[in-house]
Amino acid sequence: MSTVTQDLLNRAGDDGNNFLLTNGDYDQRRYYPNRQINRNNVNRLRPAWIFQTEVRESMETSPIVVNGIMYVTTSFSHVYALDARTGQELWHYKHKLGPITTYCCGPNNRGVAAYGDNVYLATLDSKLVALNAKTGAVVWQQTIADPELGYSETMAPTAVKGKILIGTNGGEYGIRGFVKAFDAKDGKLLWTFNTVPENSVGVWAEKDATGRDMHRDIAGEKAQLAKIGDPYKTLGGGVWQNPSVDLATNRIYFVVGNPSPDLDGSVRPGDNLYTNSLVSLDLDT
User: Residue 232: helix, strand or coil by DSSP?
Assistant: First the structure.
């Protein structure tokens, strides 16, 4: 495998020979420009090969392809490198999972990121692992968050400008959501954005962004706040889908998930910032 450069990733959406990013490009469009398969011949597609993993669980992954090598993840944080033409296994990384308190919606994994000479995996026990793309050997491993506090990872990392971006699962289990950036070379933490600020109450909005009345009992919520305080440390707000990257403005855009608990709002007074929101950040800071 040749080195995956930033220039290659910038042009990934127009690359008809590779599929370098989980969703095709930094716009997350899932569009592929190759025209070998079209409406005239799609009905003639037949299996070329079948690869059976050893993991008997669900699969919610998007493979990436780099110069003829396909990288596929499975549940419980496995990574397979396959010859994309034949399906032959080149290597298999099986992550040794540590303690996991809980995880939502199955032990899935949605893919790896490729950058430089490595591929990057976020694991169910909330680790970020850099693997040598040719051999599958561990280059470095970094803790993203404490799984015993409800954190887990199923999302595919995003690689951009020397950084590996990752959010978190656990929005149903009393975590405080975040997006973090790690150095692709050594795993050093570069910055953290907490999706729930220390003052999560906000302005006690009575209408949503479209102008609809939310039928809130503001007085009751304020009384609850006085009783229990701001619940920002356990308010949820996970980020488990890849951000869009705007290289022209050096910004990323991502969606923050539900507050915690998601159905009972009586124990989370206030506006619950910034859950259920679209957020933009400067990529470098």
Answer: helix
User: Is the N-terminal amide bond of 261 cis, ω within 30° of 0?
Assistant: yes
Alpha helices (H) along 110-268 = 218-228
Phi and psi based region of residue 85 (left: phi greater than 0; alpha: psi -120 to 50; beta: remaining): alpha
Q: Which SS3 state, helix, strand or coil, does residue 265 take?
A: helix
What is the chain's alpha carbon radius of gyration, rounded to the nearest angstrom? 21
Closest CA to 33 of 25, 41, 22: 25
- pLDDT tens by residue, 99-141: 887 787 789 999 999 999 999 999 999 999 999 999 999 999 9
Q: Which two tokens stand for residue 211?
A: 């102008």
The rounded distance, in Å, linking the Cα atoms of 36 and 220 is 61
Please count the other Cβ atoms lying within 10 Å of the Cβ belonging to residue 17: 10
Class of the CATH domain delimited by 6-33+57-282: mainly beta
Domain boundaries, the chain: 6-33+57-282
Q: Is the peptide bond before 274 cis (omega within 30 degrees of 0)?
A: yes
Quick: pLDDT tens for 53-66. Answer: 999 998 999 999 99
